[in-house]
Protein backbone atom coordinates (compact mmCIF):
# COMPACT_ATOMS: atom_id res chain seq x y z
CA UNK A 1 0.00 0.00 0.00
CA UNK A 2 1.37 3.36 -1.04
CA UNK A 3 0.48 6.67 0.58
CA UNK A 4 2.05 8.76 -2.20
CA UNK A 5 -0.65 10.61 -4.16
CA UNK A 6 1.48 12.00 -7.00
CA UNK A 7 4.97 11.45 -8.31
CA UNK A 8 7.79 13.59 -6.88
CA UNK A 9 8.99 16.59 -8.89
CA UNK A 10 12.39 15.62 -10.38
CA UNK A 11 13.17 19.30 -11.08
CA UNK A 12 12.80 20.42 -7.45
CA UNK A 13 15.97 22.19 -6.36
CA UNK A 14 17.28 21.32 -2.91
CA UNK A 15 18.45 24.38 -0.97
CA UNK A 16 20.93 23.82 1.83
CA UNK A 17 19.96 27.03 3.65
CA UNK A 18 16.89 29.23 4.00
CA UNK A 19 17.06 32.18 1.58
CA UNK A 20 15.97 34.57 4.39
CA UNK A 21 17.39 33.45 7.72
CA UNK A 22 20.03 30.92 6.69
CA UNK A 23 18.32 28.16 8.65
CA UNK A 24 18.85 24.55 7.69
CA UNK A 25 15.55 23.09 8.94
CA UNK A 26 13.80 23.01 5.54
CA UNK A 27 10.94 20.85 4.32
CA UNK A 28 9.13 20.67 0.96
CA UNK A 29 5.91 22.69 1.08
CA UNK A 30 2.63 22.06 -0.69
CA UNK A 31 2.36 25.71 -1.89
CA UNK A 32 3.95 24.82 -5.26
CA UNK A 33 6.08 22.00 -6.66
CA UNK A 34 9.18 24.12 -5.96
CA UNK A 35 8.30 25.55 -2.53
CA UNK A 36 10.24 24.99 0.67
CA UNK A 37 9.13 25.83 4.20
CA UNK A 38 11.69 27.04 6.73
CA UNK A 39 10.90 25.70 10.19
CA UNK A 40 13.03 28.38 11.86
CA UNK A 41 11.53 31.60 10.41
CA UNK A 42 8.27 30.03 9.09
CA UNK A 43 8.79 31.53 5.60
CA UNK A 44 7.83 29.61 2.46
CA UNK A 45 9.98 30.26 -0.62
CA UNK A 46 10.62 28.65 -3.99
CA UNK A 47 13.81 27.50 -5.65
CA UNK A 48 13.54 27.03 -9.39
CA UNK A 49 16.13 26.44 -12.10
CA UNK A 50 15.29 28.45 -15.24
CA UNK A 51 18.17 27.30 -17.45
CA UNK A 52 21.51 28.72 -18.49
CA UNK A 53 22.34 31.79 -20.55
CA UNK A 54 24.33 31.40 -23.73
CA UNK A 55 28.09 31.87 -23.20
CA UNK A 56 29.66 35.16 -24.30
CA UNK A 57 32.17 33.32 -26.45
CA UNK A 58 31.10 30.00 -27.87
CA UNK A 59 33.95 27.64 -28.82
CA UNK A 60 34.35 26.77 -32.48
CA UNK A 61 32.76 23.47 -33.46
CA UNK A 62 35.19 20.56 -33.59
CA UNK A 63 36.05 19.24 -37.07
CA UNK A 64 34.93 15.80 -38.05
CA UNK A 65 37.47 12.99 -38.20
CA UNK A 66 37.66 13.22 -42.01
CA UNK A 67 38.15 17.02 -41.86
CA UNK A 68 40.85 16.71 -39.18
CA UNK A 69 42.67 14.02 -41.20
CA UNK A 70 42.51 16.12 -44.37
CA UNK A 71 43.81 19.20 -42.52
CA UNK A 72 46.64 17.17 -40.97
CA UNK A 73 47.66 15.66 -44.32
CA UNK A 74 47.58 19.08 -45.96
CA UNK A 75 49.60 20.58 -43.07
CA UNK A 76 52.31 17.95 -43.58
CA UNK A 77 52.52 18.49 -47.33
CA UNK A 78 50.33 15.62 -48.53
CA UNK A 79 47.39 15.90 -50.85
CA UNK A 80 44.30 14.62 -49.07
CA UNK A 81 41.97 12.32 -50.91
CA UNK A 82 44.53 11.00 -53.42
CA UNK A 83 45.32 7.31 -53.15
CA UNK A 84 48.73 6.07 -54.17
CA UNK A 85 48.44 2.89 -56.25
ZN1 LIG B 1 14.28 30.76 7.43
UniProtKB/TrEMBL annotation:
Residues 54-72 have a biased composition (Low complexity). Residues 52-85 are annotated as: Disordered. This is Ferredoxin-like protein, involved in electron-transfer. The lineage of its organism: Bacteria, Bacillati, Actinomycetota, Actinomycetes, Mycobacteriales.
